[in-house]
Amino acid sequence: MDPASLLAVRLRVREAAEHDYESGETKEVLAALPEARRCGDNAVVAEALHLTQHCLLGPESTELRVQFGEELLAVAAAADDPFEACRGLMWRATNLLLTGHPHADRALTLLRAALDEHRHLAMSYVVSSIDVMLAIRAGAFERAGQLAEESASLGRKTGDPDVLGWYGAHLVTIRFFQGTGEELLPMLLELVASPELSEPNDAFLGALATVASMAGDTWTATSALRRLCHPNLAALRHNSIWLVTVFGAVLAARLLGDRDVAAEAYELLLPFAELPVTGSFAITCLGSTHYPLAVAASTLERWDVAVDHFRRSMTACEALGHRPAHVLSEAGLGEALAVAGAVAEAARCIARAQAAATALGMDAWRARWRQPTPPAPWAGKAQCVRHGAMWMLTAAGRSVTIGDSIGVRYLATLLGNPGTEISVLELVQQQPSDLTATDLAAQELLDEDARRAYRQRITDLQEQVDEAEAGSDLMRAETARSELDWLLAELGHATGLAGHSRAFPSDAERARSSVQKAIRRALVRIGTADPEIRAFLEATIVTGVRCSYRPPLT
User: CA 218, CA 211: separation in Å to the nearest integer?
Assistant: First the structure.
């Protein structure tokens, strides 16, 4: 055909649009659009603008899409074409809904009025699908379900290829906000591979990962998330369902504890924080993008960041009129505040979220939320964590790495149980040492043979200590020294004034002396590496027959 003909121009624009739509790009269709404008035919320009906007439904093209939508309305007015006017109004309403614009409802009202005057089945189907989304935003789940059925029926009459996908999106959104998404697990398993979908739909894969993880099916959830992230989230097409897809990945990552996915998703979503999480022609809305950002930050344990995003999500959901998303945001805020230590405010948030959830029929979500309990005032002040043959000791805002020893193990046990008194016998039993409760069994007297045996054992142990220290075998040296200290104390207690033999003290007393000396030696080693940590521990570690870690309350 003549390459300069209007048909040739139309075909080149369509070919470019189809390429970009499949690839998630915009380069070719934007390059083809100026040729359509130059042809001077309003119908060709309108068609080109319509096709171009299909390729610009990703969140990064918001401003350009709105601009082309307004241009389409101007072209329709110039041509005095009622069909193109309706199509322009449809794009205006859709674009404003996708951006969360405060006047989106007015644009939708204008579209309804235009369609009442100039009936068009396909555009009426779009409006009916948007009505489902608005009912979900209002928390009218039963009504939304009815509208979803009616909308799907209308879509089938029009022969729209997206009927299955849009109806599936409506059901998933309704069940998600009701907290009963696991009911759709069998449907989603079929839907992600369904040839009836107009194209592969990554959003359903994200939904499957979320729903399966909520149902406790970790294997299915992990498998779906891995498929979604192959090779990574950044490789996903930036199309009309991109935000919804990443939303699903974030929730699944939170439930599965996948920090890598959460970290990548956070960086990808951050530029679009002020947008609502919508899909396709705004036929579904999951609230504000601040919500998945908050969830990702929670997975990464960046609680101050999570709190900020949850607060922003609540504000955005109020502007959107999205009651269920607002409830989830406030509950998430309460949980984040509880971890951050703001227990009183957290309790108020969760109480409000529970009350709102009850009013909206979100009972399954409500059952998941618990009022926070105040943590022990000393929680998280210090810790001692083993890494191979070394221990990382953190206290007083400082950290130090020290070698293994019996004393360090005692400290690790005490630091891991703040505020809890632990008997020295229990401490001794927990360690792989020669010094056990059985060894500490009381005897009445030491005869001369016993004293000689003790002295010989003391000599042997001293040699072991010297040999181990010379060979830098700190663990062996510490084990031998613990027994040596115990035997020296035992012999001293067993021999009274003028060398007279006497009865042994109790088991607890013997263990107390051994544990106390082992901890003291550990503190000396810690002090060599960091005097401030030693000072902190000396002020907070209590030794005796019962030992404990009692850090300051502030």
Answer: 10
> In the 3-class helix/strand/coil scheme, how is 156-215 assigned residue by residue?
HHHCCCCHHHHHHHHHHHHHHHHCCHHHHHHHHHHHCCCCCCCCCCHHHHHHHHHHHHHC
- pLDDT interval class at 475 (50, 70, 90): low
Report the chain's terminal Cα–Cα distance, integer Å. Answer: 83
Amino acid occupying residue 184: L
Output the CA–CA distances (angstroms, integers) from residue 76 to 85, 104, 123, 348, 554, in the order listed. Answer: 5, 20, 16, 53, 69
Return the exposure string of 95-117: e unless at least 16 CB atoms fall within 10 Å of the residue's CB, then b: bbbbbbbeebeebbeebeebbee
**Structure tokens that stand for 516 in this block:** 């106390």
Do the Cβ atoms of 368 and 181 come closer than 8 Å? Answer: no
SS3 percent helix, strand, coil of the chain, rounded to 5, is 70, 5, 25
* Confidence label for 350 from pLDDT (cuts 50, 70 and 90): very high
Alpha-carbon distance of 155 to 126, in angstroms, equals 8
Q: How far is CA 64 from the centre of its chain?
A: 32
DSSP string computed for 442-481: --S---HHHHHHHHHHHHHHHHHHHHHHHTT-HHHHHHHH
pLDDT tens for 380-424 read 568 888 866 678 888 877 888 888 788 899 999 999 888 888 888
Average pLDDT, the chain: 87
Give the residues across from 402 on adjacent strands. 391
d(CA 92, CA 105): 11
Q: What is the DSSP string of 284-344?
A: EEEEETHHHHHHHHHHTT-HHHHHHHHHHHHHHHHHHT-HHHHHHHHHHHHHHHHHHT-HH
Q: How far apart are CA 285 and CA 149, in angstroms?
A: 18
Cα 60 to Cα 13, 107, 242, distances in angstroms: 21, 22, 10
For residues 155 and 32, give the distance between their C-alpha atoms in angstroms, rounded to a whole number.
31
Q: Is the pLDDT of residue 132 over 50?
A: yes
Residue 30 confidence class, pLDDT cut points 50, 70, 90:
very high
| Cα–Cα distance for residue pair 29/20, rounded to 1 Å | 7
C-alpha–C-alpha distance, residues 384 and 479, integer Å: 20
Q: What is the rounded distance in angstroms from the CA atom of residue 272 to the CA atom of residue 270?
A: 5
Which amino acid is located at 216 in the chain? G
